[in-house]
Amino acid sequence: MTAITLKAASYxxxxxxxxxxxxxxxxxxxxxxxxxxTQAVHALALAGAQWxxxxxxxxxxxxxxxxxxxxxxxxxxxxxxxxxxxPGSAPYVVNAYECASWGYVLRHCAALSGPRRxxxxxxxxxxxxxxxxxxxxxxxxxxxxxxxxxxxLCLELGEGANDALLLxxxxxxxxMMEFAKHLKTAIARTPDAALCQPFFPLKTQExxxxxxxxxxxxxxxxxxWGHCFGSDPWIALITRCQxxxxxxxxxxxxxxxxxxxxxxxxxxxxxPDARVDLQDRPALLAAAPTVAPRQPACxxxxxxxxxxxxxxxx
Length: 314
Description:
The chain is of the alpha/beta class and about 325 residues long. The chain has helices at about 25-45, 65-70, 75-85, 100-110, 130-135, 135-145, 175-190, 200-210, 220-225, 230-240, and strands at about 5-15, 55-60, 90-95, 115-125, 150-155, 165-170, 195, 250-255, 260-280. It has a single domain (about 5-285), classed as Thiolase/Chalcone synthase (Peroxisomal Thiolase, Chain A, domain 1). It contains 10 helices and 9 strands. The radius of gyration is 18 Å and the shape is globular.
């Protein structure tokens, strides 16, 4: 078993427009917080009643600055709405590393004292509902179609968790090559692991497969999902676990590459009782919460570090 263990994973997909036609940004932010909170409660139920997180982080590639700027009232609204669904929590937001933010979050948490239980949300929903995420030629040329949704992960970090992570600081024009090198290193360490990587368009995927030379290729998922930002590898892992007639992987290599060159590669073990969930959801402003708030299993609040949004982690 690796030093990073997945206890539960949930991905809920939302089709554009994610908040219904004509929804304002402030209303969408509150609705997004409610949706993340509802899904987090659901994921915690998958993990088990006694699984209590020590850390709660929301990371994103396309999150609005209205959510991340401390002085903005909408940022406070976002956190308060999450607290209403998850009593005792103090979520913070990381977006500096784009699609690879989840890896930097795990590195930060692994550096804290004691074993960590991380409740991690990867939330890529456009509260402004800009057409360029789906229509702009630049994004279509880079990654084809765009997918929107939220991944919720319940992850346990044990001793040596930092060693299970390979992070790339951004290598400009060489970022793809550096990412491939990190992926090859991870594969060499755990050759039997299921490979869960970004969803590239077919031609890019074929080129990348040649760079990596993987013995355990990921099924082609881009056509059905588009590029779902930092959630790509976690969707791939969930679909592997749900594949009919195939054995569930014991270990996976999850990997993300950001537009600005940041990358994250991690070896993740699956707990024997790990549970996963994949859903298509209606527009958030049209969906009423259906899960009751999660109550702490003990009187003590979650042990979290800050109530302020955090853009970058050292």
